[in-house]
Amino acid sequence: MSAKAALATGRFFTIGLVTAWYSSNIGVLLLNKYLPSNYGFKYPIFLTMCHMMACSLLSYVAIAWLMLVPMQAIRSRLQFLKIAALSLVFCGSVVSGNVSLRYLPVSFNQAVGATTPFFTAVFAYLMTLRGESLITYITLVPVVTGGIIASGGEPSFHLFGFIMCIGATAARALKSVLQGILMSSEGEKLNSMNLLLYMAPIAVIFLLPTTLIMEDNVVGITLALAKEDFKVIWYLLFYSALAYFVNLTNFLVTKHTSALILKHEYGVMERHL
């Protein structure tokens, strides 16, 4: 294969990854609104835990059974701590994003999320001490300005929801930078599927006691809803599997581009999980 053909193939592959991420994000976003609206299922921490349980199971199946990629071992305590930190940041971003959707419309949530590249650029510089080109920073100005204008003119503005949305946006940016480091650092490099395999169970450990403490009787309520309409279980299963696909494509896009390009391409859509 010629260099030109290889370059074209790589571009089509990247476009396919971004398209897959778009589609799965939209599906998860719609389910995030559908479950509370139609079933009164307002338990964002429990939903996030279901998502991470699916990530644990499906990642193991893909690596250990289907052998899509080789199994990689954690090589040091420091590497484990980095993965644990990524899991904690990820949980915070997802829970905050889900909470914000209870108070803010999807359109406003996405408008605020458009500022993600700004946070990504800040965290990338602080953690790697490497800046982007001047033109990259210039392109961030209208993005951030648009988010500020949208925030000031939103008729259904809710302060707590806005704070949660900003927190989710910043956490998503930090997650992208951390996962980029973990997927590229020499000596600690993990491919996307192995990173998700190790990250997901740690997230479940964080989320299980949190949901039991903060979302009273969520298991009993879920079972009661299932007795009235069993479709809610299928929705939860589909949501969890789709959320796994969101994270897998997220990691792959980060690997094939960069953390900041990822947010420029698609920062407004990561309202998932």
TrEMBL record:
Keywords: Membrane, Transmembrane, Transmembrane helix. Residues 17-251 form the Sugar phosphate transporter domain. Pfam families: TPT. InterPro entries: Sugar_P_trans_dom (IPR004853), TPT_transporter (IPR050186). GO terms for cellular component: membrane. Signal peptide: none annotated. It is found in: Membrane. It comes from the Eukaryota. The keyword Transmembrane helix applies. The chain crosses the membrane at residues 12-31, 43-68, 80-101, 107-127, 134-151, 157-174, 195-213, 233-253. This is Sugar phosphate transporter domain-containing protein.
